[in-house]
Specification:
By secondary structure, the protein is α/β, with parallel strands linked by helices. It is built from twelve helices and ten strands. Bound molecules: zinc ion.
Amino acid sequence: MNALICLVSAAYSLLSVPAAWLQAVDSIDANRIKAAVHYLASDELEGRDSPSNGLNLAAQFIAKSFDRAGLEKIIEGSYLQTTTYKNRRDIEGQVSNVVGVLRGQDPLLKETYVLITAHYDHLGKNERLDGDQIFNGANDNASGTAGVMELAEVLAKAEFRTRRSIAFIAFWGEERGMLGSKHFLESNLIPADKIVAVINLEQIGRTDDNEGPRIAAVSMTGYDYSDIGSLFSSLAEASGIKTEKHTRNSDAYFGASDNIVFAQRGIPAHTICTAFMFPDYHRVSDHADKLDYENMAKVLRLIGLGLLTIADSEKAPAWNLDNPRAKRFHDARSGGN
Ligand SMILES: [Zn+2]
């Protein structure tokens, strides 16, 4: 750990977590998360391919939960940012990102955003397979999607508001090349220079990592590329969850999910997961009954506290210039938006 990181980490560790924040994240409910994952990963949604009817059913389900939470709509009276997409097999259809906002309360900072995101699409089905043909994608990534929905639910119900605004977003098309997040950024719905950080959730349900059990700990990709990794680590005591740099995968997977689309525009953006690789990865057997929902609720407590800390801080997260791998992402922002 280098000097800069220590300094930043010390600065964050001086921040105490307000009791109201703890109360909000304590209401995260494992059963509610479980119900959401079971629906998103059900056979009815046929693996949520882009485009497909199952994908659109999932979008409506997520939008309904944002509506129940009372999130603000920023797309002409809707939570859906819809476009048309034709896939490689010439199947064309409507696809949507789902976007809802919890408005901040600072007169100036409320125009800036922290994004909490997850892709909700998956691989669809393969009719040439014998037996089970549906890629249910429970851990990848109904888990992250349900996490975004649950955080929207508990943070919107809380009486406090952070200084900055928080945008809750579920992306289509990650499995087909991060298409939904690219469309979101190119649309300027929230301009890149108003986004201070992106926390992306992937595979937060399985604790049976191929490398061994992963309980009460998460990994962050690009852990020491910005000061967000050390911020999350400093919340270990308050949340009961450790945030770790995986010696090989934290860097190797930095470009493997939607966070990279934002990082390439210079926005500090990371993905959080429990396991990088798990036994049913991209198989039809990635089923909802294999997730550890109690652990997932605890992981979401940490993510909620991290999100609130960034959203309530006047200081925006920054790339770690002592890490040569972070330089090009820092330069992408300086290069101007
Ligand atoms: Zn994924």
